[in-house]
Amino acid sequence: MAERQAVPERVVRRVVGAACLAPSVHNTQPWRWRTTGRGLELHADRRRQLEVTDPVGRNLVISCGAALHHARVAADALGWDVTVERHPDPRRPDLLARLVLRPGSPPPHGADVLDLLVRRTTDRRRFTSWPVPEERLEHLAAVAHECGARGIALTEVSERFRAERLVLLAAQLQRSRPTARAEQEEWVDRGPVDGIPHQVLPESTHRVGTYAQRFDTSPLHPVPSPDLESSDGLVVLFDGHDDVPAWLRAGEGLTALWLAAVREGLSVVPLSQVVEVPETRRAFQHDVLGGLAHPLVLVRVGWQAIGRDDLARTPRRPLDDVLDAD
């Protein structure tokens, strides 16, 4: 049998470059890629794990799942068929996925898809008051489900009320804990290749909706009460398990949902704190999800009156810092 064709280096670099545009908690970019000749391996980079707010690595793996989805989308857009084996070696728990690439047929709109990956960003500015129709939120949840994640749109007033109260409580609890605040502040203006530059953060007077701005470094103050008439949409991704495979699926579903939102002109902002804080994570599981599943990702969805073209972007690590040759 003839040996499978090796993937050209230029294709590998384009796929990994697009994958690294994925969102990650605090823009830590906690992934490493390794070429295998026939494709790529995705590894978790534990050196970039947030020890205080992400001690089990949940957000780290979700971030890697987002990068995995971006890699799959980019490879397909470039005309390569992708086969993904998740968690291929139990002896190597940080090897999250192995991707095999084979030449295929470029799709007719491949360039548009690659542009979509570039345009996706976390827009923390205040959303408009235009409501997001329930059917759009349900569609986004269904898109995440198609990627293996489970998601629902929170549209009932009572479940929104409980979710919003827990989001605000989580923000308040983290702001009251010096170690959590210090870790967060460490990633603001961290450097030229990672972290959150202050330019992408809105002024306190332009906070997103009624939610406390995560990276607000002003003195502690009471968190405002939630606005029950908020027009922002809420979608939660959840799973029956709270483990690495579930986290990876959630990351893939998150960016599938996110790209679909961008196509429709919507903005997405993850509300990670409600899952990071043990008290609010448990309360969300019981009060919002009825004790039947574990919350993994909660996102806000809304409309922006201003386009993204002039929005500052978070930086990315050089490709050679995250890609190792076989």
Topology overview:
Layout (H helix, E strand, L loop, with lengths): L8 H11 L11 E5 L3 E6 L13 H20 L2 E7 L8 E9 L6 H10 L14 H13 L3 E4 L3 H19 L2 H9 L46 E7 L4 H20 L2 E5 L2 H4 L1 H10 L6 E10 L15 H4 E2 L2
Parallel strand pairs: 1-9
Antiparallel strand pairs: 1-2, 2-4, 3-4, 5-6, 6-8, 7-8
Commentary on this structure:
The chain is of the alpha+beta class and 326 residues long. Helix content is 37%, strand content 17%. It contains 10 helices and 9 strands. The protein has a 5-stranded mixed β-sheet. Strands 5-6-8-7 form a 4-stranded antiparallel β-sheet, with helices on both faces. A hairpin with a 3-residue loop joins strand 1 and strand 2. The radius of gyration is 19 Å and the shape is globular. About 5% of the residues have low confidence.
Highlighted features:
globular, 5-stranded mixed β-sheet, 326 residues, 4-stranded antiparallel β-sheet, alpha+beta
Strand order of the largest sheet: 3-4-2-1-9
Largest sheet: 5 strands, mixed
Write the element-wise H/E pattern from the N-terminal end onward: HEEHEEHHEHHEHEHHEHE
**Low-confidence region ranges:** 205-210, 219-229
Look at the structure and give the mean pLDDT.
Answer: 90
N-C termini distance = 23 Å
Strand proportion: 15-25%
Helicity, as a percent range: 25-40%
From the alpha carbons, calculate the radius of gyration and give it in angstroms: 19 Å
Q: Enumerate how many helices there are, as a single number.
A: 10
Q: Please identify the structural class as seen in this structure.
A: alpha+beta
C-alpha geometry: globular
Structure summary, number of beta strands: 9
